[in-house]
Design a protein that fits this description.
Blueprint lengths: L9 E7 L3 H13 L5 E7 L6 H8 L4 E4 L5 H11 L4 E4 L4 E2 L4 H12 L3 E3 L2 E3 L2 H19 L9 E3 L3 H6 L6 H10 L4 E3 L4 E3 L2 H6 L1 H16 L5 H9 L1
Parallel strand pairs: 1-2, 1-4, 2-3, 6-9, 7-10
Antiparallel strand pairs: 4-8, 5-10, 6-8
Helix pairs in contact: 1-2
């Protein structure tokens, strides 16, 4: 990846917990992004499968942080606080990304100078998830500016306080973060992220889709408090 500046511009923050296989699958993509303008910050959130060893062997110039099962949101926050770039790309480890996507993102960030950049997403197992992808991309993302971690937020680093204030558990952190970021200059990117549908397959596609849809509806119209929604989600 050839960029025309030498100072770190983009910090890519990748939390993982027992994701050795996913890290190995993504090595070729991640290696293609290594540049003087880009820093990698991997956050090991309590792995026991050796994923941290894979990172150390293949990303000798990256930063490897360690937390203890704090969850994706807090792991992202931990990484963002340690980042040195003007922008931080919050990237879940199981997202599949085209090789040229980083160059596209870099150019758009530099030229448009937005505060928040978010990707539309597609799911593996597209036949089962096609309607849900459409709902999330067209209605939630482009319509009312709500997005999940798996959309791969790119944030200006001075927004780290918003990430800290909105940081909650599980699905609600997506909604609370989006709510705060809606006040900023929000740009939806053209490039899509391919997202693993593992959790949907595990819990059942329909069950998870209905659950998330109900939570968004209740939260958006302020019918139920966030605390009660969190209990509902855990149940």
């Amino acid at each position: 990846m050839k960029l025309d500046i030498h100072a770190i511009f983009l910090s890519i923050i990748i939390p993982f917990k027992n994701e050795k296989i996913q890290i190995e699958k993504s090595l070729s993509f991640f290696k293609g992004l290594q540049s003087e303008s880009v820093e990698f910050i991997f956050v090991n959130d309590g792995s026991t499968d050796g994923g941290d060893v894979i990172v150390k062997e293949n990303f000798k110039t990256s930063t490897l942080l360690t937390t203890r099962g704090v969850g994706t949101g807090k792991a992202f926050l931990h990484g963002m606080k340690k980042s040195r770039g003007k922008y931080s790309w919050l990237l879940p480890v199981d997202c599949l990304i085209k090789e040229n996507i980083a160059e596209n993102v870099y150019e758009k960030i530099r030229n448009k100078n937005g505060d928040v950049y978010v990707f539309p997403k597609k799911y593996t197992g597209e036949n089962e998830m096609k309607f849900y992808s459409f709902f999330q991309n067209m209605i939630l993302l482009k319509g009312i500016h709500l997005a999940a971690w798996t959309n791969g937020f790119v944030l200006k680093n001075n927004l780290v306080e918003i990430l800290e204030k909105s940081n909650r558990e599980v699905f609600l952190v997506d909604l609370e973060l989006s709510k705060q970021l809606k006040k900023k200059k929000w740009i939806v990117l053209d490039d899509e992220l391919m997202v693993s549908a593992r959790k949907y397959k595990k819990d059942g596609y329909l069950k998870r889709i209905v659950l998330n849809g109900v939570i968004v509806f209740l939260w958006f119209f302020k019918i139920v408090s966030s605390e009660k929604l969190l209990q509902f989600y855990r149940a």
